[in-house]
Known about the structure:
By secondary structure, the protein is an all-alpha fold. The protein contains four helices and no strands. Residues 118-137 are annotated as: Disordered.
Amino acid sequence: QSLKLTYPETLDRIKEEFQFLQNQYHSLKLECEKLATEKTEIQRHYVMYYEMSYGLNIEMHKQTEIAKRLNVICAQLIPFLSQEHQQQVVQAVERAKQVTMTDLNAAIGHQLQTQHLSHHAPPIPLNPHPSGMQHTSLAGISSASGLLALSGALGAQAQLLAKDDRGVHDTEPR
């Protein structure tokens, strides 16, 4: 008789443990689904940042090539200037090569103002390179908004250079 009483108690206990395990399984399943969605979101962000980085790297190489070509053009044209103008142009070219983070900040701020974005975001400060060296490359950018602003500034600079180049060709006699 005492054995008969223990069967229902044992069954109730097994039932309670099963419900506990089932609840635990359900909560773990929900947590796993939540982590899977977070993983998907993080992967999407990673791809977005990778694409931005790749585009910015290409833009940087393009701008470097433009600068090299413009430097060659200047070097070819300087001998045709008078001695006084040659010195002025050489000094101006040397000053142009001394780009500082302040200059980059000013250029980006100007670009943001021309795009009417200045009321949405403050000018983005560029920090020096973490190694302590001042690079004129894009290594100081640390935020996504900085990357976007800089890529926009570089794109606009390329457009201005292209317009200037067209303007030079338009004024030449045919």
